[in-house]
Amino acid sequence: MKRLLSLLVALTVVLAATGAMAADFPAKNVKLIVPFSAGGGTDAVARSLASVAEKYLGQPVVIINKTGGSGAVGMTEGAMSKKDGYTVTMVTREIAWLFQMGLAQVKPSDFDAITLVNEDPAIVLVRPDSEFQSVEKLIESAKADSGSVKFASTAKPNFYLLALELNQNVTFNQIPYNGAAEAIPAVMGGHVDFTMVNPGEAISQIQAKQLKALGVCSDARLPGLPEVPTMTELGYPIVTGTWRGLAVPKGTPEDVKATLEEAFAKAVADPEFQEFMDKRKLGIRYMNSKDFTSFMEKDVKGLTAIVEAVKKQQGK
Questions:
Q1: Domain check: are 115 and 185 in the same one?
Q2: Which of 236, 237, 137, 153 is nearest to 195 (CA)?
Q3: Torsions phi, psi of 5, nearest 5?
Q4: 217 and 129 in a common domain
Q5: Which regions span the lipid bilayer (predicted)?
Q6: Cα angle at 221 between 217 and 222, to 5 degrees?
Q7: Domain that holds residue 309
Q8: Based on the domain organization, do 249 and 108 belong to the same domain?
Q9: Same domain for 223 and 290?
Q10: Alpha carbon of 255 to those of 20, 59, 93, 109, 275: distances in Å?
């Protein structure tokens, strides 16, 4: 009996402490882990959103770039952080396939979703003076000499490229980089032949004519780049891209998650954030926590067929 009373007292203390924490949250800086390097699209979305969210949270939101493993390093650290809401992670589409490929253990179910923020198609980019002035030329060269055409990969394996490889039964030489911030200069410097990133990650270089866009992997042409044909128009029915959202470790208190969800929802709708995303040609796609959870589960299932094809291709 005495032991039972002690357990009840301890439980009461824990619940009281949790309730007090939720009521006071946030009482200090909130960390936002970005699993890719500074300067890329994920980093840009995170920094703009964090800046705007501060006025709704009432506390600074500090960006922490944790790179490596195609996003696995940062997302794993985020999933394993303390369940108090003070560490939020910008999860990206890589979380839907890394564990399926056996390249990481972190998976969507390790997180509680907060909100989906962004979704963008992939775009094929080369140097303006490249010998590859069309997608057709890239594919012809890859078919003629498998693995000879060098691709700057923002993650390896790269699901943008895999969609193209599987569709055309070709193989490119994937050179891994830590995100678009490293891949884009590699193309501009002539170290690789092409890359596929999101339009917003390369819009400055495209507008400055430092990069040439050959095709975009979307259902329709982009309003900000109307001269760039879709891959489907070019004869390659490939629709692929990425998404970015926010999540906290599984088991974070409900009140804390509700505070974060409300604050970041207001930040996504804020004119300052909307203007930034529009100028950078980054797409906004908002979902609440419930819909974002279902969205990730659906994407995991949707990518399974590609993952199995890749494993078969690799003899696994």
A1: no
A2: 153
A3: -60, -40
A4: yes
A5: none
A6: 95
A7: 30-120+242-314
A8: yes
A9: no
A10: 11, 17, 27, 19, 30
Say how many Å lie between the first and final Cα of the chain, rounded: 57
Q: Where does residue 5 rank: exposed (0-12), middle (13-18), buried (19+ CB within 10 A)?
A: exposed
**Does residue 15 sit within a domain?**
no
Q: What are phi and psi of 257, to 5 degrees?
A: -65, -40
Encode the chain (316 residues) as per-residue pLDDT tens digits: 455 455 445 544 444 444 555 679 999 999 999 999 898 889 999 999 999 999 999 999 999 999 998 899 999 999 999 999 999 999 999 999 899 988 899 999 999 999 999 999 999 999 999 999 999 999 999 999 998 999 999 877 788 998 899 889 999 999 999 888 899 999 999 999 999 999 988 999 999 999 999 999 998 899 889 999 999 999 999 989 999 999 999 999 999 999 999 999 999 999 999 999 998 889 899 999 999 999 999 999 888 878 887 777 666 6
Q: Are residues 50 and 88 in the same domain?
A: yes
Out of 234, 255, 275, a domain closes at 234
Tell me, yes or no, whether 309 lies in a domain.
Answer: yes
Q: For the chain, what's the residue count?
A: 316
- 141 and 196: one domain? yes
- Name the phi and psi angles at 184, rounded to 5: -65, -50
- Cα 195 to Cα 122: distance, rounded to the nearest angstrom: 10
Q: Which CATH number belongs to the domain containing residue 278 in this structure? A: 3.40.190.150
Q: Which of 24, 35, 54, 29 is nearest to 246 (CA)?
A: 35
